[in-house]
Amino acid sequence: MCGRYLAVSDPEQLAERFEVDEIRTDPQPPRYNVAPSTEVYAILEDEATRRLGTLRWGFVPVWAKQLKGGPQPINARLESVATSKMFAPSFRRKRCLLPADGFYEWQDRGDGRRKQPYHLADPDGAPLAFAGIWSSWRDPQQEDPDPLFSAAIVTTEARGTMAELHHRMPVVLPATLWQDWLTASEDQAPHLLDAVAALPAPTLRATAITDRVNSVRNDGPELLEPGTVD
User: Fold this and answer.
1) Catalytic annotation present for 96
2) Which CATH code is given to the segment(s) 5-224?
3) Which of 16, 22, 105, 143 is catalytic?
């Protein structure tokens, strides 16, 4: 799964990395502990224009009757994203890239010991591209409400470095698949599952860190300092 990640690159850096045509968001402060329900950078494409904006992390399905108390999953499983009632419509028509400067995972060490957090990132420090899906929801209890745009990170079975830490991981897309993920038609979308499944394990650097990352109130570069949990 993916429940916490980093977003420290600014819009200009992301625009260069992901070949964005238009920036539609104000810069956000660097965040070393991005948590669900916050606004996160996202890349979408329509009419041959690739845009950088923001989406709320925590997927609100279009059929939700209300926001409070309703389903807001942060992850969508690759194995069922094309068939589930909640995610399938967005998988067919509303896919996005969610840029991240790394993410966190907690290793269950057994024997009653506390879980060990790890920071995972590209070895060269380049932003990662998480496969995402998004939704546009309007509150049916309001008259002429503004839309709420939200997203979920697509996850898959862990491979490579991640397999030693957890059984799930975010789908990290290589540059060769960015365009297809963003623009594949509804008829072409099912083939994306085969393309993603055929990807080799992403190359990630895993660093054991202290448990300061456990609290969402902690946010700063000190979270990346190496350390172990007793």
Assistant:
1) no
2) 3.90.1680.10
3) 105
